[in-house]
Amino acid sequence: MLARITSVTESSRGVGRLIAAGVAGVLAILALAAVLLLLSLPDANAFNARVERIFVENSALTDIESIRLLEILAQSGTAFSDVLASYRVVIFVLLVFAVALLVATLVFLVVLVALYRRMGEIERSGIRVSSLLISREARTVHLNDMEFSLTQAAIETLSVLAEARMDEDILSGAQIEAMVSGRDASDCDEAAGATRIKRLRDALGNQLVSELLVRTVARRGYMLSIDKDVIRMI
User: Fold this and answer.
1) 59 exposed, middle or buried (CB, 10 Å; 0-12, 13-18, 19+)?
2) Which pTM was predicted?
3) Per-residue model confidence as pLDDT tens digits over 11-66
4) In the chain, what are the domain boundaries?
5) Which terminus of the chain has fewer CB atoms gathered within 10 Å of its CB, N or C?
């Protein structure tokens, strides 16, 4: 048990480190891309500087047409500066969205991997049940902190499986049908027991719970995949 807890803890820490490293890597790449992109853009005042230089170098131009042309160039430089400034804002906003989406995607993928890994552990080890209380009179089953109301047939099927689990037996479909109906196993059909198992799983409702609680053993039959010491019947 201690080894399993240690393994789970180390696995959780490994997933946490993987998420942190992935997020840091994504942020570093995007930050580098943003810096290179912004540095590659021309200076917003470059056009104004050129226009100012034209003014200085052509100070002798005093006619109305020349002055008007220089004013148009100055206004064009101001418009160009405003456009570049807006481009920088747009690029910054897009980069922020890109960072948020990539980080969210990375975290989502890592969580999915951890979830699938956890599901695999559950499938290999079976569902972890700390208590299973079966009440035939009330036709209810208390599984850990979950309560299920079952039909009379389903509660009888589950009771038979619980009794077999306490005796460490695996029951075939014919044996289940025989114990529930009170007939001899040789007179019962294997399919009838399989039908009872299917109805029990349907009555439990939760597919994960039902499939892992009532386990099918190939070529042998059915059993409850829980510790026999946690079973109580009233």
Assistant:
1) exposed
2) 0.47
3) 556 656 766 776 777 778 777 877 777 677 666 566 667 766 766 776 666 667 76
4) 2-125, 132-233
5) N
